[in-house]
Amino acid sequence: MTEANTVIASASVIPVKVIKTLHVSYQIPDPLPWAQLAGPLAAAEDALARLDERLAKSPISDGFVARTHFTDACASLWLEGELVHLEDLVLHDAGMDIRSPTHELTRAHAVLRTRRRIAAAKPDWALSVSGLASLRGRGGQGDREAGSDDRKEGAHDGGGANDAEATLDGENLDQPLVMIETDPRLAAAFAAVDAAIAKSDRTLAGETTRRPERDPLVYDLDWDEDARIEDWQRIVDRTRTLPPALAAAITADAWDRVEPLQHMPWLGRLLASAVLRARGKTRWHLSCLHAGLKTIPRERRRSSDPASRLLTQFEAMTAAADAGLKDHDRWLNQR
Questions:
Q1: Are the beta carbons of 328 and 58 closer than 8 angstroms?
Q2: Which pLDDT score, from 0 to 100, does residue 109 have?
Q3: Residue 156 lies in a domain
Q4: CA 135 to chain centre
Q5: 175: exposed, middle or buried (C-beta count within 10 Å: 0-12, 13-18, 19+)?
Q6: Distance of CA 175 to CAs 163, 170, 295, Å?
Q7: Any domain includes 195
């Protein structure tokens, strides 16, 4: 045993060099193969416009949008090889689970909440710096400054009412002060409220707490998300002069290739839907690209040819819009 320990102690430690991961840069095809893209692009634009026009005058547009949020969230997990039942997601969203929610169900619910946030916000919010930071789970400085300005405006607006109340209360200032006994539990509750208000004021003032260190077992510490996000945003900026459907297709494809976030591959397709909404192509709904991609074989979704991947995105938009038209007409007839 002693001899074995001696041999182990004499062994030199081999240094391990960690190679920093390099992300794949994305290049928009130049020139674009218009002869190959023109037909599917026109079909996608036409299908999206027809569905949006139908929803603009539909009496069930709100219900249609609410239901498609659920179906697209389930489809996003299907594309990753996971199965989430629509009924389970509905019950989980209502807080009426019949069993402990699975990891896949919680992820689908995260997609559902994100879709709702994008659909409820302004059309260009999700693509803004503050919107993207919020969707990533990081509070933006712009949001804090806006909140601080709103609070200041509210204080100015309510100044007259406070002065009036002070005047009414001032009529009894000449009376002797009386000590009022307070419940210690009530005092502790007020102290907790004061502490929460002070913490909110510090947050609104820009004092952010340090983010906790990420677990290397779950996250790649060399994965520079901020740099990847900047690269992706530069690509999106270059699509401003392109047709809306083509810009959305490039947005989704670039997210899949650059992979800005380690554990949110589905966010790129939601942002592509936000591009369609921001460009005015879908004013009344958020396109269900996940549901449309379910109709495309995996080999085509993962093609190495950029033009083929763009064609896949166009076909997904067309399939999602056509399915939406059929579902809308069926639900309208069942009223």
A1: yes
A2: 96
A3: no
A4: 4
A5: exposed
A6: 20, 10, 79
A7: no
Residue 216 has a pLDDT of 59
Our count of domains for the chain comes to 1
Question: How crowded is residue 263: how many other Cβ atoms within 10 Å of its Cβ?
Answer: 10
Exposure of 146 in the CB half-sphere (CA atoms within 13 A): 7
* 300 within a domain of the structure (yes/no): yes
- pLDDT, tens only, 136-148: 876 544 444 434 3
The CA-based diameter of the chain, rounded to the nearest angstrom, is 95
Domain hosting 322: range is 40-140+243-333
246: number of Cβ within 10 Å: 21
What number of helices (H) and strands (E) belong to the chain?
A: 15, 0
φ/ψ of 307, rounded to 5, equals -65, -40
Percentage, residues of the chain above pLDDT 90: 52
Contacts of 113 (CB under 8 A, 6+ apart): none
Contacts of 233 (CB under 8 A, 6+ apart): 132
* Amino acid code (one letter) for 288: C
Quick one: tokens of 308? Answer: 């083929």
Residue 7: which pLDDT band, with cuts at 50, 70 and 90?
A: low
More confident residue, 125 or 16: 125
pLDDT at 166 over 60: no
Distance CA(257)–CA(24), nearest Å, equals: 7
Is 106 a member of any domain? yes
Residue with tokens 């779950």: 218
How far apart are the two ends of the chain, measured CA to CA in Å? 82
- 62-to-9, 115, 221, 270, 318 alpha-carbon distances in Å: 71, 14, 42, 19, 21
